[in-house]
Amino acid sequence: MADNKLLVKPKKGQVVHEVNETNSELSYVSLKVLELEVNEAYIETLKDKECCIVALTGQITVTESDNKFENIGTRHSVFEKIPTDSVYVSNGRQFGIRADSEAKVVLAYAPSAKQLPTTLISAADNTVEHRGKYANKRMVHNILPDSVTTANSLLVVEVYTEAGNWSSYPPHKHDQDNLPEESLLEETYYHEMNPPQGFVFQRVYTDDRSIDETMTVENGDVVIVPAGYHPVAVPDGYTSYYLNVMAGPTKKWQFHNDKPHEWILTRD
Fold first, then answer.
1. What secondary structure letter does DSSP report for 164?
2. CATH code, 7-266
């Protein structure tokens, strides 16, 4: 497992994850996960990337120029299963984060050349979907879906999958810039489990098997999906949460199912 470049373990410190084009095969998606103590601050100046700041747990204040969003964040644990607040900041701008309580924050990045307004994406703005049937059920919070114009490139969603269910299943991919049939979107998964000693299995594989990794994913891990199919299996007794960041040349989520497994969708 040590040579698996798709599974990233958290580190100690303020920045527990940092995934970008310098340490992964990703060109469009970057990710940071911050763990902040009360009153701890984080400042960043964006260059050619836009950023979605997700108040994963706890409460934070986000400032950018004359914009100030105070005490945002709605939950102590992601497993409260309620949407949370986020802030979109465009390329070329500086933002600051201050923790109003102990907080975990996800910073999702994608390339951007066109500046857009700094925007609060409130919990009430998240649409909630229930997808799948049989043992493929999951709940989705859409933070930045492809239908909104808040961001240039970024797509950000949260997904909950209950014990014994599969997610991102039947296996699907989005690694071809071939719209309207399929879009090219890289992806990262930030995972948490409840209870936290749990694990899930995630496989990432391509048709030609140039990528074919099956990983035991633990609480706080990140899985990188530069290409290929990427199903997740959740064992009995545990609930899975993951936050997806996607980006590519076009902000459109158009996926292609793995044909040998597509029959699962048409069962009676």
1. T
2. 2.60.120.10
Residue 50, both tokens:
């836009």
Give the tokens for residue 199: 């694990």
Return the percentage of the chain with pLDDT > 90, whole number. 97
Domain ranges of the chain: 7-266
Closest of 119, 177, 166, 165 to residue 143, by C-alpha? 119
The band of 136, judged by pLDDT with boundaries at 50, 70 and 90, is very high
SS (H, E, C) 23-44: CCCCCCCEEEEEEECCCCEEEE
Q: What is residue 31's predicted lDDT score, i.e. its pLDDT?
A: 98
In this prediction, residue 3 has a pLDDT band, given cuts at 50, 70 and 90, of: low
In terms of Cβ atoms closer than 10 Å to its own Cβ (0-12, 13-18, 19+), residue 48 is: exposed
Count of CB atoms within 10 A of residue 143's CB? 30
